[in-house]
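Suppose a colleague, Dr. K., hands you the sequence of a protein chain of 140 amino acids and asks what its three-dimensional shape might be. Before reaching for any lab equipment, you can write down a predicted structure in token form. Begin with the sequence itself:
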Amino acid sequence: MGKSIIFLAASLLTVLIFAAQYVGAENEAAASLSDKDVLKVLMGNLDVKLSDSAHCEGVGIDEHDQTIGDYLSGFWSFHTARQGNNWIEVATNEESPGHQRARVMIYREHGEENWGWGVSFVIDNEQTVDRTSFVCLGAG
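The predicted structure, expressed as tokens, is then:
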């Protein structure tokens, strides 16, 4: 009986160790989402309609902008100007277990131009975007 309990305890401990490693690997995968990963999944979702996204209807630099791609490319086109400072900021924060909220902002500073526009969206651990989670952000 004593050997059975020891064997059972050792087996349970082994299962718990493997489970902890698996959970740790999942959390590490979410935490290791690189800027490149975020930008890549964003590019795969540029066809999301502005009208289907929070705070996005009627935004953009052109009245014909209809998608997240139209919206972002309009502001990104200002980066072709060679004067001033232009940059992109990418950040992620845990939204819920297994999900990150990504934020991609396009910034420009030149003289009186001082603005930042972008989006946030939710990505799961498999780098799948929740297409209903897009929110347009910005001011300037």
